[in-house]
Amino acid sequence: MSAHGDPIPMSARRAGPLSGVAEVPGDKSISHRALILGALSVGETRITGLLEGQDVLDTARAMRAFGADVAHLGPGEWVVNGVGVGGFAEPADVIDCGNSGTGVRLIMGAMASSPITATFTGDASLRARPMGRVTEPLALFGAAAYGRAGGRLPMTVVGAVEPVPVRYAVPVPSAQVKSAVLLAGLNAPGETVVKEREPTRDHTERMLAGFGASLRIEQTDEGRVIVLTGQPELRPQSIAVPRDPSSAAFPVCAALIVEGSDVLVPGIGLNPTRAGLFTTLIEMGADLSYENPREEGGEPVADLRARFSPAMKGIEVPAERAPSMIDEYPILAVVAAFAEGVTRMPGIGELRVKESDRIAAMAAGLRACGAMVEEGADWMAVTGRGPGGLPGGATCATHLDHRIAMSFLCAGMAAQHPVTVDDAGPIATSFPVFEPLMERLGAVFARVGA
Ligand code: S3P
Predict the structure, then answer these.
(1) Is 324 close to ligand 1, i.e. is its CB under 6 Å away?
(2) Is the CB of 204 under 6 A from ligand 1?
(3) 396 membership: H or E segment, kind and range
(4) Which of 53, 263, 286, 297 is the 20 to 30 A CA-CA neighbour of 237?
C-alpha cells in the first residue's frame, strides 16, 4: 500500500548517461522546524524554499490545528502567524502526521509543556514506530502519554499544566528526540539541559538561536550539552530553506553509477551534521566535488558536481559518522553494490526503526538484484559487483519507505536488467518531483501495469 492511496509499482531501467542540472527541493528537517518555530513565535514568519512534500504539508496542517495561521503564497513560499510560546490551542480533532516521524515527534515536544491534550496518529509505517523515546523525556516535564502497546500511535499526549525544566541525556543518537525535548523546554520556566553523546543534526539549535531563544552549547568529554532558557519570546523570522542533501543524494549517487553521467546539483545544504554521505563517497573514490561554497540562511551551502565513477572501492564507513548520514545508508548500499570490494557499515542500528527496517529492506532487495549482503543487528556489509555489474531484474518491497523506493529506482538506472519497486507512492513524502527531475536528467521509468 502507498501512504496516501493505491500502490504505484514502478520500474527503472538502464538508458543513456544522466546529465544536466538537478534542482532538488527544500530540506525536510529544516522545513518542519520552520513551520513549528514559526507557529511558536509571535508575528509573521516568512519561509521560502519550503519542501512541499506530504510530510511537511502534514506538519503545516497540524500547526493550523494548534491555532497558528499558516498560509501558502506560492511555490515554496509560506507565511506563518504564530501564537507564541505556550500559546497552542487544543486541537479539535486527531492530528494525523502521515508518514512523518519528525513531524509527530517534534510536535509532541512542542505541545507537551502546554495545558492541552492532543491525539496523534499516522500511516501504517508511522504507527509501527516507537514513540517511547520522546514520551519518556516529555514525562519529566509533567506530560503524560497514552498509546498502544510498545509506545505506538495512535497516542494521546496530555500536556503538563505546570511544566518543570528538565535535564536529559538522549540515550540514542536522535535529533528528533533532542528536538522534542528542546521544544518542550521552551515553555518550561528555567533551564532545560539536553546532552547528546554523538552530535546529531543541529537545525533546531540553529533555528532556535535565530528566533531569539537563549541557548548555550558546550562541548564536553561526554558530548554536546545544550542549555536552553525557557519561556522566551520568539521573534518571527525570514527563513530561506536550503535544498535537501538527503534528496540530493539520489541524483548524485545515480550519476556516480550510471555510465557517462555528469550532473550538477546546486545549492545543497552541507551542514556538517548532514554531509557524511558525500565524505564517504569521496573516500570510496567518487568523482564528486563541491563548487561555489557559500553560506545561506545560517547554513553552509555548495553546488555538488557528480560524474560517473567507475573506480569506486568499498570502504569501512566509520561508525561515528552514522548520525551525519543516517538517512543515506540505503542509497550508499546501492552505490556499494556497483563498487569493487566490500563496503562495511557499522553502527547503524537506528536504521531498524526508520520508516521501515532499512537494513532488512535493503538487504532483501539488493540480494534479489544479485548483490551479496551480510547484516547484523546494527551493521550491514555489501560486496560490490563493480561498475555496471549488478544484475538487477527484481521487484523490491519498499514497506511504505520513500528512501527505499528511490534507492532501488536508482539501482535500476545502472543495473543490467530493470529494477521494479512495489510502491513509488511514498516518494511524495520527501521528494515529490523525484520522477520528473530524474527523467529530465535522462532516467527512464515505467509505471508497471499502466
Ligand atoms: C530527523 C532526524 C533523523 C532522521 C530523520 C529526520 C530530523 O531521525 O532520520 O529523517 O529532522 O530531526 P532520528 O532522530 O530518529 O535519528
Answers:
(1) no
(2) no
(3) strand 395-396
(4) 53
